[in-house]
């Protein structure tokens, strides 16, 4: 009797086992992008940026350029997003943006203008972008960067400024 009970118990346990998973197909660019998106939010990395010199009472164009390692590029089809969380000493914070990588492949430009009689200003935000290996996009990584930008108001500042935002290697 005990033997029959043990056999029945063993048979019931075998039914509850899930079937073995099928082997995964080779990744494509679309599959890599989906994997990057499914990986959840990327770790938010805080960047220390140099202070930016801007003129008083004048609009300054600030261009964020991507500093990607050789063999890594911005994914054209993936979403790009920037959210400005806080500004102090600026007439207004730049507008948040949602677009695709192709629109910001050469960089992202925003305009800032300090409040009158302000000696300095700050702008804080987050950028979400996806980088992939440049050869076949077999590896794609979501990237999140926290930017704290500091502005010093001086009369001899240029009207256009560029900053380099480092990005990780997608390998």
List the uncertain runs.
1-39
Number of strands: 10
- Relative strand content: 35-45%
Query: What separation lies between the terminal Cα atoms?
Result: 60 Å
Mean pLDDT: 81
What structural class do you assign from the helix and strand content?
mainly beta
General form: elongated
Helix percent band: 10-25%
Radius of gyration: 25 Å
Please count the helical segments. Answer: 2
Q: Element order, helices and strands?
A: HHEEEEEEEEEE
Main β-sheet description: 7 strands, mixed
Helices, strands, pairings?
Layout: H1 2-16, H2 29-38, E1 44-48, E2 52-54, E3 60-67, E4 72-74, E5 79-88, E6 97-100, E7 108-112, E8 120-133, E9 140-153, E10 160-166
Parallel strand pairs: 1-9, 2-9, 3-10
Antiparallel strand pairs: 3-7, 4-8, 5-6, 5-8, 8-9
